[in-house]
Amino acid sequence: MLHTFVAYVEDRPGVLTRVASLFRRLNINIHSLTVGHSEQAGLSRMTVVADASAEAGHRIQASLYKLENVVEVDDIAQAPSVTRELALIKVGATPGTRSQIFELVEVFRARIVDLAPESMIIEMTGVESKIEGLIQVLNEGDGRILEICRSGKLTMRRGHHTSGVLTAMSSGAEEPSEEALDAFAVGPQ
Amino acid sequence: MGNETQAQNQPPARLTGAEIVWATLVGEGVTDVFGYPGGAILPVYDALRKFPIHHTLVRHEQGAAHMADGYSRASGKVGVAIATSGPGATNLVTGIATAMLDSIPIVCITGNVSSKVLGSDAFQEVDITGITLPVTKHNILVSRAEEIAPAIRLAFQIARSARPGPVLVDITKDAQQATAIFNFEAAKPPAHRTHPMRKLAESGLAQAAELIRNAKRPVILAGHGVIESGAESQVRALAERTQTPVALTLLGLGAFPASHPLNLGMMGMHGESWVNHAIQEADLLVACGMRFDDRVTGSVSTYATKAKKIHIEVDPAEVNKIIKVDVPLIGDLREVLESLLPQVASRDGSAWLKTIDGLKGDSAVRDIKNLPDSGHLYAAHVIHDIWRITGGNAVIVTDVGQHQMWEAQYYHHEQPRSLITSGGLGTMGFALPAAIGAKTACPEKEVWVIVGDGGFQMTAGELATIVQEGIKINIAVINNGYLGMVRQWQEFFYEKNYESTPMVSPDFVKLADAHGIAGLTVSTRGAVEEAVNTARSTPGAFLLNFKVEKEDSVYPMVSAGSALHEMIRRPGGKDPLEES
Questions:
Q1: pLDDT at A168 over 90
Q2: What is the tens place of the pLDDT at every residue in B385-421?
Q3: Alpha helices in B179-293 (DSSP H)
Q4: Does any domain span residue A137?
């Protein structure tokens, strides 16, 4: 099954290697990985999507926590969450074929962000399947796809879950509050 | 910790990075290090004479890592190894991995080329933090003198916290040469963050107590964690109160006294048959500081299928990794047991203990040491005699292979830290250097190396280290002319195709003599006792070359992938001593 791990990690050299190496050792392919600044100075937020057995999720989460530079890990699994992906798609387009592409972009609620004499760039945000859909119809149409650049999944739980844990961890408390950690309970579920 | 106080009381002063390395080590209470100098670590060596630290010059950096490891296993303190960049650093890797697999706290300090040329393939440059990333608990690359003290202090904290392990600090040469204000106190890292999934549920304690109360055939599985956590008396209290027998992992030997009536002995691939049968018949396993390694479970699908399982473990990543457990109790073993014990009442375990006793009779008949002297020398006899003569009070450091298993079977350990052996990685060549580390940590203890002829030749160069250090170690080479354990596998599973296992060795007594170490060759059972006594009474190091039966095998054996109760037994009915 596809696991989505959200990790807060120290923003310093080598941390990405440590996280990636953990998946490499298990011979697990990372489907997508996004990293960027978080709401906390000095901490980056990663969303890692990887295909592993259902049982492996617990072990990967526990092993990620063993990395000294990893502050917090959440296995989103099937929990209610918001997931988005950003795609930039460059398509070959002449004045004659543009209008058809404009229509598609309108239907998919995407945007044109660059227009050149022989090409244009479409920006689209959405769930993976929606982006796949746009790519498919573009391929079927007159326009020729020249380049695709996709961000990979960005995921955030609905409600206060993640930030609650982070607050507990950064407040200097020895251990996060019971409430914040309920979702991390170890053992048979 | 007198040194630490001293370091704390010293006013901050401007020191070179090299001096900061030693000053920080002194502050951490380090008195001994093991290392080998070279270009990129020379500033550090140049500053050594100013500090009250004893440096043991090794003959190969692998030895330095094993010595730091043996030092730690014998004393419970953090061992320290030092090496230069490039090949010096890569030579440490096997020793670091050995410590990683057995959760041993060591700190390795390596020099590296100057920060200006990092990544330029400079002379003796290697990406050692990259190389050791998967075999260290953590590693740190330091390129500024200001960062040295905080990095080393953090390394010590990480090495000894929770589940211990090796940490490497790689320091560029320019950082060693630059100066910085040294303030030991200010370099203290923030309190170690507890693993967020390490959370002991009260409900788990109640469930565990309930399972223990209702069990008819319980077994405690005690591992290395008992020793690392210092939970020997708590495990003993649990066993005695509930009259539960205790089976030990290889690294758990010594965690529970061998002579205790509730001690079963070693479990697993070469565990005695009654131990493995008891585990397979048990209705409750209480796993304490052990990780269900494949060498103790045999086939996982058939492992202890009748038993409920309680797993007390400090590392959340070990829970449900190999064996699905019913009640995980995550935390420091001693703390968890102290919380659990008040909820546990005494119970009568006599029926179950009697059943297990019944299983022992058959094994005693097959036991090689109970057979009459045929004139042949068997490793079991040698080890049993060393145990008898040392009264079980020596620190035994073994290598890897058949002799390691015979040691586990025939030397009965009463005290924790009296057996030092590479369990997880199974590193041949470990014994001799690890023994030097153990003797350095515990000079008052009698230290014996038990090593095969193969493993001995991997690190025999450290004989010179023993002489240079003037330390007393007794070395028993169990010499059968084969890579014995591999030969045994070839006998059992590869139709006796002894490919590349017969081994020609030098005359070990002459080799020892060339180093200035006295020695004796022993080839009969009757001569063992006197030889062992000679070794013990000789003031310097002593080597005993035991020429043992060439094709003896370790029994019982659970072959890889078999169920734990499916053991290959020593051929019964006939006397194996008469076979050859």
A1: no
A2: 999 999 999 999 999 999 999 999 999 999 999 999 9
A3: 202-214, 224-229, 232-242, 273-281
A4: yes
Indicate which CATH number applies to the domain containing A114. Answer: 3.30.70.1150
Among B129, B138, B319, beta carbon nearest to A186: B319
Tell me how far apart the alpha carbons of residues B303 and A24 are, in angstroms, rounded to a whole number.
29
Q: Is A113 contained in some domain? A: yes
For residue range B284-325, list pLDDT tens digits in order: 999 999 999 999 999 999 999 999 999 999 999 999 999 999
Q: Are strands B218-222 and B246-248 parallel, antiparallel or unpaired?
A: parallel
CB contact under 8 A, B196 and A174: no
> If you classify domain B377-548 with CATH, what class do you get?
alpha beta
CA-nearest residue to B316 within chain A is A62
Q: Are residues A75 and A7 in the same domain?
A: yes
Q: Which residue in A62, A67, A169 is closest to B316 by CB distance?
A: A62
CB contact under 8 Å between B196 and A184, yes or no, is yes
Indicate if B405 belongs to the active site: no
pLDDT attached to residue B12: 84
The SS3 assignment for B265 reads: strand
Cα angle at A64 between A21 and A177, to 5 degrees? 165
Please check whether residues A33 and A90 belong to one and the same domain: no
In chain B, CATH 3.40.50.1220 covers 202-358
User: What is the rounded CA–CA span in Å between residue B232 and residue B32?
Assistant: 27
What CATH number belongs to B2-182? 3.40.50.970
Residue A91 sits in the same domain as residue A105: yes
Which residues fall within 8 angstroms of residue A59, CB to CB, at 6 or more apart? B317, B320, B321
B232 is catalytic: no
Mind telling me how many Å the CA of A122 is from chain B's nearest CA?
40
CATH of B202-358, one of 3.10.290.10, 3.40.50.300, 3.40.50.1220, 3.90.1720.10: 3.40.50.1220
Residue A36 distance to chain B (closest CA, Å): 23
Q: Which domain holds residue A114?
A: 82-150
* In a shared domain, residues A124 and A92: yes
* Chain A environment of B196 (Cβ under 8 Å): 65, 72-73, 165, 169, 175-176, 181, 184
Q: What residues in chain B have their Cβ under 8 A from chain A's Cβ atoms?
A: 129-130, 133-134, 137-138, 141, 158, 191, 193-197, 199, 201, 204, 315-317, 319-321, 324-328, 330
Cα B487 from Cα B470, distance rounded (Å): 36
- Report which of B64, B10, B50, B5 is spatially closest to residue B29, judged by C-alpha positions: B5
Q: How far is A7 from chain B (nearest CA, A)?
A: 13
- Using an 8 Å CB-CB cutoff, list chain B residues near A180: none
- pLDDT (tens digit, 9 = 90+) per residue, B207-238? 999 999 999 999 999 999 999 999 999 999 99
Q: For B508-554, what is each residue's pLDDT tens digit?
A: 999 999 999 999 999 999 999 999 999 999 999 999 999 999 999 99
Query: What would the mean pLDDT of B45-52 be, rounded to a whole number?
Result: 98
Q: Residue B244 in contact with residue B238, Cβ under 8 Å?
A: yes
Domain count along chain A: 2
- Give me the mean pLDDT over the B335-348 stretch: 96
Asked if A18 and A70 sit in the same domain, the reply is yes
